[in-house]
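Study both lines:
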Amino acid sequence: QVQLVESGGGLVQAGGSLRLSCAASGRGFSTYDMAWFRQAPGLEREFVAAISSPGDSTLHADSVKGRFTISRDNTKNTVYLQMNSLKPEDTAVYYCAASRQLSMATMTKAGNSYYWGQGTQVTVSS
């Protein structure tokens, strides 16, 4: 089992940048594929990005492609989300998710079974 704690959220102006971190505790972090999701008020949780367990493959939602980058450091048990050129519509609570059963390519549905973090708020002002 893995426990996840997100950090790095905050308030930023449109066009700015933030880097989110998700620190994992527990055994076997390097065997988990990881993903970021987000949920805005009144909307369903949506996929943002995913990364394979060794970090050699990534997948990004079309809405963030070219602006956000997912990465991981297995020596630090941490996955990151670098967010550039932020827009007001990126405002949401961002969640980190982990799965040992699902491959990165299938970690696009929020309804699948994951280990979840508690989330970190990102607010982008116009």
Observations:
- The mean pLDDT is 96.
